[in-house]
Amino acid sequence: MPWGYAVRRLVPSLAAVLALGLGACSSGTSTTTATSAAGGATQASAPVTPAAPVAGGSVDGTALGKKMADALVAAKSGKLTMTFASSGSATSTSAVSMSGTATSSFSVNSAGSMDSSVTMQIGGVALEAVVSGGAMYLKMPGLTATNGKPWIKLDPAGTDPISKQVGTQIAQAGDPRSALSTYENAKVSVVGTSGGVTQYRITELVVSGTPVTGETMLYVEDSTGRPVRSVTESMGVKATAEFSGWGEPVSIAVPPADQVGPPPGA
Fold first, then answer.
1. What is the distance between the alpha carbons of residues 54 and 48, in angstroms, rounded to a whole number?
2. CATH number of the domain enclosing 160
3. What letter does residue 111 receive in the DSSP assignment?
4. Per the domain annotation, does 249 fall within a domain?
5. Which residue of 20, 121, 129, 157 has the fewest C-beta atoms within 10 A of its own C-beta?
6. 138 - beta bridge partners?
7. Which residues pair with 107 in a beta bridge?
8. What is the DSSP pairing of strand 77-86 with strand 237-244?
């Protein structure tokens, strides 16, 4: 697969895992601590006990985004596993065919920004990425740095074609409060509550200024605010995310400097 095609099809999906998937995260009621190799900070999370929403009602998208963003900052770390599959439900020419998996770890560092690492197998292509210090480090078959190194470094403000394409998502991936803008004008309705977990139906999401078609089902623990699971169907692709590992120690390290170089076109 030519790298140009892979970047157009796969890198935006990777950025979505980092920006949108990690934006929908939160904390717990018990006191937890977490450390990040990138930041080394340790902080206790504060307990929260929100009231359960009422089935059939609606909630403010901004309030939901703030609740999850606040909780993520308090939790300091977590893990995310995602699966992608063509849903077969789309009939428009905008639908894409995609299947695969992604696993990620993330941690809020001492500077208040979020570091994360992702391993993705999608569309028959393997990708690895690390977001730290405001930059993304990316490794994928057929894509090498201008100096021949296996990892490329992408800057949100970079002028190369790849950085221009995913710069906004990279910036959001490093911002633990990126969920605020994602949910700001979304329509959020309460489907129901079972076993202390509320299910929300979310439509009209906007990611990086672009409306997202389809809908997301988000499952959130009432007592902790932690997302348990989310299922998004958009453009013929179904993405299922499972959240875990809240507050557990996470080690996120950037690739060695001698393995990193500028992206093509830089």
1. 18
2. 2.50.20
3. T
4. no
5. 157
6. 129, 152
7. 77, 115
8. antiparallel
Does this model's pTM top 0.85? My answer is: no
Please state the separation of Cα 3 from the chain's center in Å.
23
- Collapse the DSSP code of 151 into the 3-class scheme (helix H, G, I; strand E, B; otherwise coil) and give the result: strand
Residue 108 placed within a domain: yes
Task: Calculate ∠ Cα 67-69-72, nearest 5°.
Answer: 110
Q: Does residue 211 lie in a domain region?
A: yes
Q: What residues make up the domain containing 86? A: 3-27+47-240
Would you tell me how many other CB atoms lie within 10 Å of the CB of residue 224? 22
Into how many domains does the chain fold? 1
Which segment, 48-62, 81-95, 127-141, 171-185, is predicted with the most confidence on average? 127-141
Q: Note whether residue 258 is domain-resident.
A: no
Backbone angles phi, psi at 78, to 5 degrees: 180, -175
Q: Which of 34-48, 206-220, 237-251 has the lowest mean pLDDT?
A: 34-48
Which tops the pLDDT comparison, 205 or 139? Answer: 139
